[in-house]
Amino acid sequence: MEAQKKSLVVQISGRDNVAIAVREIPAGTEVREGLTANHDIPQAHKIALEDIGAGDPVIRYGVVLGYAKEPIKKGDWINEFMLDLPEPPSVEHMEWGKNIVTDLPEPPCTTFEGYRNPDGGYAGTRNILGISTTVQCVTGVLNVAVKRMREELLPKYPNVDDIVPVNHAYGCGVAINAPEAVIPIRTLRNLAKHPNFGGQLMVVGLGCEKLTVEMLLDKADITPENVIILQEQKGFNAMIDALMEMADKKLQILNQRKRETLPLSDLCIGMQCGGSDAFSGVSANPSAGYAADMLVKAGSTVMFSEVTEVRDGVHFIAERCVSEEVCQKLAKEMQWYDRYLAEGDVDRSANPTPGNKKGGLCNIVEKAMGSIAKSGTSPIVEVLSPAEKPTKHGLIYAATPASDIVCGPCQLASGITLQVFMTGRGTPYGLAAAPVIKVCSRNEMKEMWQDLIDVNAGPITTGDATIQEIGTELFHKIIAVASGKEKSCAEKYGLHNDLCIFNPAPIT
Ligand code: CA
Predict the structure, then answer these.
(1) Tell me: domain 2-84, CATH 2.30.130.110, correct?
(2) Of 365, 397, 380, which is closest to residue 319 (Cα–Cα)?
(3) Residue 170 CA, ligand 1 centroid: distance in Å
(4) pLDDT in tens, 150-190
């Protein structure tokens, strides 16, 4: 009985004056000795552990989430309307290197089965013909061709997993010379050479667009073997014939690729979360962090991102940076994003969604603290601008928007070949170019979406599993999916979101 009562709430830090309801707690319930719920507390929402005066801090994760607008009584439900948001921490003169953890958990294995790449970069987890485009105008024709390629060509090449058109909304009607245009251009350049595409370039252009083939590819790669310009083709059927012919040649080469046993240092994965709730920072994200630590220990590269979701905890990230240079790049990326948001007359408080709030996340500080947990404890060896490629192995902060469908393409462009995605409220999100493993924060989510969630971190919230246990389970799942021995749920059903390329530059 007592054990059951203990598991009604989760308190993270001894300093916290709030705890999270493991399940819905009706008013009048004795939550634990001396603490009775004054209101119905929805699952994942906060209950006050002590009286909190007006203007006093509300503390979770040992961090000030905000300041009470009105006095809060012990046992009260705390919702998003009751807190004033604190100022974001300054990014000037951040202390770096104060928290360098070298004692990382031992990985259960140090190799995986991947596709070595001719450029010597990260290995592929899938063998895909990726077809890049310079502009949205070609998408209709390309999609018709890809449907035929999948039906007529793909069955001939059993070692190739898929044919993926890299369709996007960029390329024309854009201010191509604007300083920030470097981001979408870099994204598309790097996507064309994604590790899962095996070094086989295939690019479709229209012929009159602003993003020319010359901007997308290196000069040596611009050949009739790699590039088709639709305005140079005599009508629709000629376009389809040319696309089919080029794809057939590329597929023949890709079909020669074989998986081989490779060190985990050849693996590069990304971490993201979406549809988060107040449990995300208790169960799913810390488990992902544990798996990330094991991967880093094995030499892998792990990226985490989502600027608005780390902004309030940026000083914790700075402490983990290995050099002043890395810390300065972190500050620069945060400042750039602060300005970008300010130009739209918003700040990081625009991030949380109605679903986040329904899931008990009061504000962006609370969301950020949970979000950062997915980075584990490893030192941060590099900070990347959106869609930049890493030059180091280890834990990397890749600055991207938090929007799921924008973060995905940015991380893909930076070279991830698998993404781990944590969710509290559920999303069927997926990427065509790399498998996405879904980790949920609550048992109820897993029960609801049995066939869409790959790993359930919910048992951590009820005391039925540890972060280490679920983190290790996730590590094994990452290796199995990366090695092609298993497919993730989203991959099995072919759930692929559109590629929303981050374009902070003007549209004309
Ligand atoms: Ca996200």
Answers:
(1) yes
(2) 380
(3) 21
(4) 999 999 999 999 999 999 999 999 999 999 999 999 999 99
Cα of 351 vs centre of ligand 1, distance in Å, is 10
The full set of domain ranges for the chain reads: 2-84, 128-254, 261-492
Please give the distance, rounded to the nearest whole angstrom, from the Cα atom of residue 114 to the centre of ligand 1. Answer: 27
pLDDT of 448-493, one tens digit each? 999 999 999 999 999 899 999 999 999 999 999 999 999 999 999 9
Helix (H) or strand (E) holding 10: strand 9-10
Average pLDDT over residues 25-42: 95
Residues, CB-to-ion distance under 5 Å, ligand 1: 274, 402, 404
Identify the DSSP state of 197: G
State the pLDDT confidence band at 496, using cuts at 50, 70 and 90: very high
Ranking 2-11, 188-197, 482-491 by mean pLDDT, the lowest is 2-11
Q: Cα(462)–Cα(100) distance, rounded to whole angstroms? A: 31
Work out the average pLDDT over 214-236. 98
Residue 4 has pLDDT above 70, yes or no: no
C-alpha 398 – ligand 1 centre gap (Å): 13
What DSSP assignment string belongs to 151-196?
IIIGGG-TT--EEEEE--S-SSSB-TTSGGGHHHHHHHHHHHT-GG
Which region, left, alpha or beta, applies to residue 97 given φ > 0 means left and ψ of -120 to 50 means alpha?
left
Are the folds of 2-84 and 128-254 the same? no
Closest CA to 306 of 262, 352, 252, 246: 352
Give the distance (Å) from ligand 1 centre to CA of residue 4. Answer: 34
Instruction: Find the 282 Cα to ligand 1 centroid distance in Å.
Output: 17
Q: Stretch 227-233: mean pLDDT, rounded?
A: 98
Tell me, in angstroms, the distance from the centre of ligand 1 to residue 306's CA. 6
Q: What's 128-254's CATH class?
A: alpha beta
Conformation bin of residue 275: beta by default, left when phi > 0, alpha when psi is -120 to 50:
left
Q: Are 418 and 269 in contact (CB under 8 A)?
A: yes
Give the SS3 label for residue 415.
coil
Strands 227-229 and 63-68: unpaired
Spacing, Cα 101 to ligand 1 middle (Å) = 26
Residue 366 CA to ligand 1 center (angstroms) comes to: 15
Cα of 292 to ligand 1 centre, how many Å?
17
How far apart are the CA of 307 and the centre of ligand 1, in A? 10
Provide the pLDDT for residue 91: 95
